[in-house]
Amino acid sequence: MEKEPTIYDIAKLLNLSAATVSRALNDHPGISTQTKQLINSKALELGYRSNTFASNLRRKETRTIGVIVPRLDSFFIATVLAGMEKVANESNYNLIISQSLEQLKKEMANAKTMYNTRVDGLLVSLASDTDNLNHFNTFFRKNIPVMLFDRVMEQKNCTNIVIDNFKAGYEATTHLIGQGCRRIMHVTGNIKRNVYSDRLKGYRMALLDHGLPADEDLVKVTNLTRQDGLDAVETLTQMTQVPDGLFVASDLCAASCVGGLIKKGFSIPQDVAVVGFNDDPVAQLVAPNLSTVRYPGQEMGEIAAQSLINHLNGRLRISSTNTILLNHELIVRESSQRVPKLIKT
Amino acid sequence: MEKEPTIYDIAKLLNLSAATVSRALNDHPGISTQTKQLINSKALELGYRSNTFASNLRRKETRTIGVIVPRLDSFFIATVLAGMEKVANESNYNLIISQSLEQLKKEMANAKTMYNTRVDGLLVSLASDTDNLNHFNTFFRKNIPVMLFDRVMEQKNCTNIVIDNFKAGYEATTHLIGQGCRRIMHVTGNIKRNVYSDRLKGYRMALLDHGLPADEDLVKVTNLTRQDGLDAVETLTQMTQVPDGLFVASDLCAASCVGGLIKKGFSIPQDVAVVGFNDDPVAQLVAPNLSTVRYPGQEMGEIAAQSLINHLNGRLRISSTNTILLNHELIVRESSQRVPKLIKT
DNA sequence: TTGTAAGCGTTATCAT
DNA sequence: ATGATAACGCTTACAA
After folding, report:
1. How much is the average pLDDT of A163-179?
2. Which residues in window 11-50 of B are less than 7 A from strand C by Cβ?
């Protein structure tokens, strides 16, 4: 390992002080353009790279953002991370990513690691069984910003970045009702999480508003896996009054339901109209194409990262925007469209 | 921001030297168990956390691994990252992840950032148009280990972690031939990349070995998007001699092909038997279920990270294992199974 | 516009 | 078994 050149080396070679070199490299206004050029070219020549540790040690900031997600192997999460990475990169921040695997315990461990790594801020989507934010107290105490996205929890210390899951659930259900469904089943995830409980509330409110009974047997709380989808179909088909609509809180699971229903001889959307959630790529790959709620993952990631960075730069007071609400969109495709669409000419 | 306690604070409070405290916290053998306990409990009491920058500055290592991937919003990549994250976390390494968006230019920029961040090592899956590794020369020169996974390039400086794409392509094609296919189309990605060129070679070799003609019109190089799948179907159906087999180098695209074919009235696998690649979740969500090649993403991530960490710890000489080959597995499902499987009793 | 010098928190080396 | 001290490379008052 050859020796790394430092600002002292550059300084010595140019008969300048290290301070001047440091300033020049940081584009400090009070350094003449001439010496700046001189220093920059010499730096290039030596293959100089700034030592982040020395710099961080001195500055007491890390330019690193911690991200904790429930899992990495989900398309939605990947999209969010892509957005975060893009923004962070543009602003010269690094991302440190870890997954909680849906467990509070692991989430606590991750938070601790992030704390010790001294991240400048934290972006978190909560594990499915997290029911308090005490493990972020160390951050709150030090005023290190923590922002929650997608799976959030109301808390005065945190900015939340979400879509209006209640409204989305309401719209999806209302759409099914509009297609003539009178008995709509809802398959969802752990209702500790806002994303699921809010969609459920929206579903219930829609039923209520349209004078449909709220049969509790029609609500199935699961882990939204492929198997859960097949199980839900089993439940559905064995009901005395078979549902004619199905609202599933995730596309992967919804796709699985569609497969199961078709295998059992149901036709979709005639017998059962189905709406999923997320607009996962799978929605357009299954037949019939899945109606769903589009969920701007990339944008959510970008906004989360940008908000955090703005906050770190003091450009935005966190308290002024405690919740950022992104738009969603109901996408009606074949799986729920009983009246054929008009064909464009 | 309250002041962070340092080893000096602990030292002063216990009437010890900072050196002793440092050693105790690092579990140095030459410190009495008694003082170690004393120091540890005091550290806990003060909420002390080690300052990584000071430590890194002194030690000249970062315990950070850089990862460059073509894109984050792919299920396969997400799986790989999950594996890497797991291993890195267990060994107290941090991951810094960035995406090249399939562009050499962005990959170069990422490499530069990683270099300036002084990552201890690099894990890279190449962008689709990368045709040389010159942008990693800075790493090679400093003997910073660079490992390539999945999309690799032969190079004496790098360890490669791959599956046998040639064999996988050969097996997939041979399977189709075994199902009676005589005219097999192959839809693949940029053949600059080993993953695609090797699968193509395997495809060709299989045709050759079974005495089938290698019609170049049957090979379609695309970006493997959903649209590319539909386009491929268009090409296929307009051929004078319509193919009876289809081998697609990615499940997402394959699923799209299946959808397109069915829409055009083909039955699968009777008219066209289809095999995809990757065992993406979509493979089991489309009807008919997609035959595919299982590709151990999580495992690949774990092995890549572990190998790199082993190398960094001097536990493994990089030159001794220049290529790590992981197992793959042809999964036969409905989309290519013409003879019905025997039913287990 | 540039220089001087102190200090960020650790760890390694040499002493004791 | 513990202590004193000098780096590590950078930034930033303060001075010139």
Report:
1. 97
2. 18-19, 22, 25-26, 48, 50
